[in-house]
Amino acid sequence: MIYASYLWLLLCYAQNARSNLDEESVEELSNRFLGRGTPQWHSLPIRLDVDRASGCLCRSTYNRKVIVCFGNYNCKKIPRVKMKSDLLKVRTTSITSVHIGDLDVFYYLKILEIEANHQLTYIEPGSFRNLSNLEHLSISYNTALYTIGNRTFEGLRNLRNLTLVNNGFTNIRLLTPALIPSILPSLKWLDLSKNNLEEIPEDAFVPMQGTLLQKLDVCLCRLDFIHPNSFLPLKELKKLHIGENDLDPSLIGNFLAKMSQSNINLSYLDLSGMGFRKYPPKELMYIIAQTTIKTLILAQNQFEIIPDDAFPEMVNIELLDLRKVFAISIGSNTFEPRKFPNLKILLLGGNNLPGVHKKPLSSQLLLLDLSNNKGNSENPMYYEIDQDAFLGTKSLKILNIGFNMIKSIHNYTFRGLDNLKMLNMENGTLYYIGPGTFKYTKHLEILNLANNPLNVNGNNFTSAQFEGLNKLEVLILSNCGITNFNDDDNIFEMMPMLLHLILRNNQLYFITAETLKPLKCLQVLDLSENLLISWWKPLFLAAGVKPLQLYLTNNKISHFTISMIQDISYLLEDRHNRTVEIDLMNNVFTCDCSTMYETALWLEMNGSAPLRQYFSHSKFQCNSPDVWESFRVSNYMESMKKSHCYVYKKISNVIILVWTAPSLVTLILIAIIGLFLYKYRVYIKYWIFLAKLALGRTFIRNSLKADKCEPKKYKYDAFVSYSNEDREFISEVITQLEKSPPYLKLCIYERDFEIGSFISESVLSSINESKFVVLVISTNFARSQWCRWETQLAEYHRIFLEDGTNYDPLILIKIGEIESKYLTATLKFLMKTKVYHTWDENNREEFWIKLRNVLTKDVHI
User: Fold this and answer.
1) How far is CA 533 from the centre of its chain?
2) Whether the Cβ atoms of residue 743 and residue 718 lie closer than 8 Å to each other
3) 273 and 302 in contact (C-beta within 8 Å)?
4) Using one digit for the tens of pLDDT, what is the confidence trace for 336-376?
5) Where do transmembrane segments lie in this chain (predicted)?
6) Which residues contact 335 (CB under 8 A, 6 or more apart)?
7) Disulfide check for 97: which of 122, 230, 350, 775 has CB 3.0–4.6 Å away?
8) 2-20: per-residue pLDDT in tens?
C-alpha cells in the first residue's frame, strides 16, 4: 500500500541514473531504507484435508496461490496435494528421501521450497524431471543432506533461482557438477550461503563453464581461502556476495583483479561483516576502484573513524553501504565529488554519528540514509542538524533520518533540499515542528513522521507548520498522540494533492467533515487503532471525499448510524470497477434489535446493490451480546427476524408510553401542589415556625456540627489475585514492590492467609482490607475458577464501595496473549473498558515505575 511509493521512487532512480539496480536490488534497498526486515509471510487460514498417503497436514491462503505442508513425525513422504498453486512449501517433516515420481504431480509449480526437513538425506537424480515450469527452487536448512547427485536437477529447464542454504554441504566441488549449463540452462542466481565450505579451490566452478549465472551468494560459509582463478568460469557473473567470512583482503583483491583481467564485469560486491577494522583496506579499495563495481557493501565492519583518505578515487561507485560500522566521525572530504563523482546512494545508518554537519555530504547524492544514529540505551545520543546543513545537497531526493533522537526541526533545518521527494523521520523524539519547516521542500511527495511525540503537550497542529507541502502525496502520522484536528486552522489545506493519510494508533475520538474537505484526491485513509465511535452526521458524503481504502479497525464503533450507512454507500458507488476496501474489523459492535433494526430496515428499503453486497460479504463481528459474540454482523442481520424486532419496537413504544403517562400525571400534581403552597404560603410559614419551636424544645442540646471524617486505614496496599502457575512473576512482583522503595505491603494468599481459615472468607476480608485489588491476568488466570470468582468479587467491590471512596481500586496486569475462549464476560468487559498494564520483557523498568506510581498515588475518601 504505502511502501509501494517508496519502491517507486527507488525504481525511478534506477531508471533515470541508468544504474545496475534491478528490481530485486531496489526492493532489498527499500527494505533496508525503511527499516523493514524480511517481508511478513502470508497468512494461511485455510486448512486442507490431511494427505492420507503421506500423513502431512497442509494449509493455504485464501487465493490458493500458496500451500504449506508440514507434519513432523507423521509426514514421511512428499504430499500429493490435489489443489493447484503457484508455490508449495514442504517443511519440518520426517521425509528421509525424495524419489522419482514423488514430484511429478506438481508440474504446474513455479516455486518449490523443501526446507527444514532435518531427516532428509537423499534426493534421487531425476526427481524434478516433470517440473519444467519451475522458476525458483529452495532446498535449504536440511542439515542431514550432505551431497547432491550430478543429475539431480534434470528437467528444470526454466529454473532461474536455486537456493541451497544451510544444508550439510562441506565441499563445493561435489555440488557444481550438478549445476552444469546443459541441465540448468536458465540459472541466474545461486545461493550457497551458510554451508561449511571453508574454501573455494581453483577448479570449483569449472563444471559450470558457459553458465549464465549472474548472482552468487557464499555468505557465512566459514571461507578462509578463495583461489584467484576460482570465479573465472563464471563469465556472466554480475553480483558476488561473500560477506561474513574470514577472508584476507589480499585474497579478495587477487581474485577481483583476475576477474577484471578476464573481462568479468562485476557490478555488485558484498563485503559485509568481514572483520575489517579501523578503516577500509586501502589496497583492496584501490583494486575495487579499477573494476566495474558500482555497488559496494561494507556494512557491519568496524570503521570508528572514516578519514578523508579512507577511499581512493572510485569513479564507478554509485551505491556505498557503510551501515553499522560503529562510525563516530567522518572526514569533511571523505565523500567529495572528486573521489565519488557518480555516488548516488550513501547508507550510513546504524552508526554513532552525532548529526548532520555541512561538509561530509556530497552534492551529487540522490539518496542519503542517516537513520538510527542514536547510540545505545546505556549511552543515548541526541542527533543534531546544523543550520543550513543541507545547502550543498540540492540533488538529494530521498533522506532518511528516522530512528534518531531529534528533538525539534525549524524553518532552517531543510533549507537547500529543493528537490527532496521523500523524507523519513519516524521513531524519533520529535516534539516540535517550527512554522515554515517544510517551506523549502516544495517537491516533497512522502513524509513519514510516525512514532514521534508530536502531541505530547496537547498542542494542535497548525497550517504554518506544514506550509510548502503542496505536492505531498503520502503523510504518515501513526502513533503521534493526536487527539483532534483544528478545523479553524486546517493543516490539510496545505496538502491538496494528498493520496495516502495514515493516522493509525492515535487517540482520535472523532474526525469531522471539515477536516477532510481539502483532501479531494485522497485514496487511502487509515484510522485504525484509535478511539473512534459511531458518527451521527455524514462524514465523507459531507466532505466530498471518496478514498478507495478506508481502515477503521480496532476502534470503539458499537453500531451503524444512518449517517455511517450513507457514507459507506457513498464510498462504494460509481468507482468504475475499482476495488473499494472498507475495513471495520475488531470493533465493539452490539448485535440486538435496538442497534441493528433501523440499519437493516434502511438497507432493505434504501440500500444500493453494492451496499447490500458489502454487508453480506463483510467479516466484522459482533462483540455483544454473548449469544452472538464472534459471529459476523452480516449473519445477525440476515438471520434477524423482522417480526421479532417489529414487536420489540412496539413493546418499546408501549414501555415509553407507560413511563410517560405517570410522569405527566406527576407533573400535573406537582403543579397543583405548587399553586396550593403559593396560595397558602402565609399559613404554611406559620406552621413551620411552630414546628421549629417544638423541635427546639426537644433537641436543643443536640450538636449540629458533623465530625470531620478521617481517612480509612488499610491493612494492605494491595490484594494480588493470580494463578498458581504464575508464581514466578508474582515472586518478581514481591521483590519489586515490597523489597524496594516505597516498600508496599501486599496480600499474597499463599503467604498471608491464616492456616485453617475458609478461603472464601479470607478473600472477602482481604479485599475489604486492601486499598487496591491487582488482577494478574493470563491464560492460566482465565482458566482458574478461583481467579474468576475473585475477579467477580473485585468488580463488585469496585462498583459498590462501602466506604464511599471516589477512586478506582481495580488494577489489571496482562501477561502474554490470552486465549479468548477462556475469558468470562466480566473479564472481557474489564479488558475492553479499563486501561491495563502489559508485561513487556523489553521495558521492565518502565513497567515497574508505572505500577508503583499507581499503587502509591494519593486518594481522597
Assistant:
1) 23
2) no
3) no
4) 889 999 999 999 999 999 888 766 577 889 999 999 997 66
5) 654-678
6) 311, 320, 343, 346, 360, 361, 362
7) 122
8) 444 444 445 444 444 444 4
